[in-house]
């Protein structure tokens, strides 16, 4: 919290991003729980004992009015011949049926969208015409408060929310989405406004019920180069995310923008949201800007989270990886700026964790201690 407030700290914060030592349960027998493999246990223990944990939580709503679109929606789940969990969602929209198919593999902690819900502009028009209920209900803060009690003073809870662009973009195959974004800004804004109309009052209510927390807003990368030009980032992200940030600030919260990949040409638009933090600031070649560049120009406004690439954790020899850690600390934590959190861009998602990855995670902690001791 001192880092978020721009106050002095005893050492740079170190976070393993999605790994928090609370949600990874090695004893859960669920066949889709990758953390049950013994290779994960040392890293889970290291996360609990040595990192500044940031536990991500959504805020559900209760006592809401029924969603009329749910009456038009059916879902079917099954396990296929390869042991993957399949889920098909079908929505009757006007004279057509919109369908989506998702797949979860037992050895990979992610969900693959095999078939996207919207295939063309006509599908989007049908989705736009679906009925919707007005905002109602109240935020259920129990999950956030329970997590805060469990982690105590070893970290904080971060409220996790997608922006309108993320919800819209994920309904399309990437190629179709980028064509739509470039050629039909009128349709894009109609869809983004429909999403924001429901999302904004929820964020305002959750911010009031849970004041002073860190939030992560994910989705802006869908409008970053090379997918869309910077002018459309301003249109599709800044225009809709800035009100989210203001709602979070209204009750003393902190807003962190999440955007992978290339940042150089959109940093002004990111800053224009009024956000307090940015992640994961990937180093070249995954990104296109050095951490020192971001810190020099935007570090007084934003706490910088990053600047380690997950591929380096999994593949670089530890000696070389330590050099990357030191460079990130030199560029992010030294000199003037609001604050810095050393953090990778993601985490491994396979069932069996390689020994090199564990050693490199350990090296992150050791290197921070050595760097801090050296002054």
Task: Give an overview in words.
This protein has 13 helices and 14 strands. It is of the alpha/beta class and 375 residues long. The protein has 2 domains: 300 residues, Alpha-Beta Barrel (TIM Barrel); 67 residues. Strand 10, helix 8 and strand 11 form a beta-alpha-beta unit. Helix 12 crosses helix 13. It is globular, with a radius of gyration of 21 Å. The relative contact order is 0.13.
List keywords for this structure.
TIM Barrel, 4-stranded antiparallel beta sheet, 8-stranded parallel beta sheet, 375 residues, alpha/beta, globular
Subunit arrangement of the protein: single chain
Main beta-sheet strand count, sense and barrel state = 8 strands, parallel
What shape does the CA trace take? globular
Structural class by sheet pairing and helices: alpha/beta
SSE string, helices as H and strands as E:
HEHEEEEEEHEHEHHHEHEHEHEHHEH
Instruction: Just name the CATH architecture of the largest domain.
Output: Alpha-Beta Barrel
CATH class of the largest domain: Alpha Beta
- Give the overall pLDDT as a whole number: 97
Number of helices: 13
| Terminal-residue CA separation | 22 Å
Which percent range describes the beta-strand content? 15-25%
Instruction: Indicate the radius of gyration in whole angstroms.
Output: 21 Å
Numbering strands along the chain, what is their spatial order in the largest sheet? 1-14-13-12-11-10-9-2
As a percent range, the share of helical residues equals: 25-40%
At CATH level 3, the topology of the largest domain is: TIM Barrel
Low-confidence region ranges: none
What's the count of strands?
14
Number of domains: 2
């Amino acid at each position: 919290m001192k880092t978020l407030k721009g106050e002095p700290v005893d050492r740079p914060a170190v976070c393993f991003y999605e790994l928090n030592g609370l949600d990874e349960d090695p004893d859960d027998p669920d066949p889709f729980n990758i953390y049950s493999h013994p290779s994960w246990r040392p890293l889970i223990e290291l996360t609990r004992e040595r990192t500044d944990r940031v536990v991500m939580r959504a805020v559900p709503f209760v006592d809401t009015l029924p969603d009329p679109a749910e009456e038009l929606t059916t879902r079917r789940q099954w396990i296929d011949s390869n042991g993957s969990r399949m889920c098909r969602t079908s929505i009757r929209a006007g004279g057509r049926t919109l369908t989506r198919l998702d797949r979860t593999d037992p050895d990979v902690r992610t969900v693959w969208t095999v078939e996207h819900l919207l295939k063309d502009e006509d599908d989007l028009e049908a989705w736009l015409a679906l009925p919707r209920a007005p905002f109602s209900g109240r935020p259920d803060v129990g999950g956030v408060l329970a997590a805060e009690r469990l982690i105590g003073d070893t970290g904080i809870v971060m409220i996790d929310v997608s922006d309108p662009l993320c919800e819209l973009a994920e309904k399309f195959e990437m190629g179709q989405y980028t064509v739509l974004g470039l050629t039909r800004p009128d349709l894009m804004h109609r869809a983004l406004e429909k999403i924001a109309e429901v999302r904004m009052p929820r964020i305002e209510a959750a911010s009031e019920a849970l004041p002073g927390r860190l939030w992560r807003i994910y989705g802006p990368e869908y409008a970053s180069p090379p997918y869309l030009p910077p002018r459309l980032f301003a249109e599709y992200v800044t225009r809709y995310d800035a009100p989210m940030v203001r709602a979070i600030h209204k009750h003393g919260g902190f807003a962190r923008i999440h955007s992978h990949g290339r940042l150089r040409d959109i940093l002004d638009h990111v800053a224009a949201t009024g956000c307090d933090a940015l992640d994961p600031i990937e180093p070249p070649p995954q990104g296109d800007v050095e951490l020192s560049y971001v810190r020099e120009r935007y570090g007084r406004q934003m706490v910088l989270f990053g600047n380690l690439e997950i591929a380096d954790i999994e593949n670089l020899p530890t000696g070389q990886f330590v050099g990357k850690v030191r460079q990130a600390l030199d560029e992010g934590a030294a000199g003037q700026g609001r604050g810095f959190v050393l953090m990778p861009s993601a985490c491994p998602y396979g069932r069996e964790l390689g020994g090199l990855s564990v050693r490199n995670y350990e090296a992150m902690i050791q290197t921070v201690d050595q760097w801090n001791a050296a002054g």
